[in-house]
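Quick check before the chapter quiz. The format below is the same one you will see on the exam, so make sure you can read both the input and the output lines.
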Amino acid sequence: MTSPSHARSFASPRRVIALIGLASLALIAGAWFFELVLHLRPCKLCLEQRTPHYVAIGLSAAALLLARSPRTQALALVGLALLMAWSTGLGIYHSGVEWGWFAGPNDCGGAVPPAASGMQDFMQQLQTTRVVSCTEAAWRFLGLSLAGWNVLASLGLLAAALLGLKGALRLSGRA
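Here is the expected output.
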């Protein structure tokens, strides 16, 4: 059985900031693995879902280097919580588009192909380029698409940020 002081140190603000940064890095690495190794081209919404995690990686790194007081750590955790709430919302929207619950964006087409060097190359690209639809899940595991798994991961990271925020506020004497 763990002691209350051990549980508090595990959920220390700095550890939670590091956890969120590393988890976001792992999620981005997973997205790049699916794209570059398994050749699953991302749609527009897939790419948008990466943005909160890219920002969370940067914010976590900056907070670990600069946020020494519980107040500044709390501020970083508020930012991370907002980023994870944004990521959760994007994932819910994308999952809903895949399941047909919401209308997706009209311009959902994935990554831009490289520029053609001439008319013949351009015509070849038109014939071989596949537009990636936001309404089709490229891959599912246990019934959830990557967007659905992002929802679960982001909700977990949101909960972790709120737990770390509670600890930071307690340390700063505001809770």
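If your answer matched, good. The first helix runs from residue 4 to 10.
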